[in-house]
Amino acid sequence: MPTPEDVARLERYEAFRRDVVAELVETEASLRSLKAEHKTKTATYQQLFANRFLLKGILDKLAEHGI
Q: pTM for this one?
């Protein structure tokens, strides 16, 4: 039987996952916008591009653990 602490911890992980998904959506929108402006060589685009991989990696790890 899960303890209240277990439930609270899972809720925090779920909130973290939602935040990561939201940030990924925002990042992908920014990348599309910069690409449409032909700004794929900018530092901002490159940082967002790398951040997208990081966010996807986090989501993959969470999925591996059923979160």
A: 0.89
Contact 23, 52 (CB under 8 A): no
Domain hosting 42: range is 4-64
Calpha distance 48→57 (Å, rounded): 14
Residues 6+ apart with CB under 8 A from 43: none
| pLDDT-above-90 percentage for the chain | 93
Note whether 59 and 17 are within 8 A (CB): yes
How do residues 32-60 score in pLDDT, each as one tens digit? 999 999 999 999 999 999 999 999 999 99
Domain count across the chain: 1
34: which DSSP letter? H
Q: How far is CA 34 from the centre of its chain?
A: 19
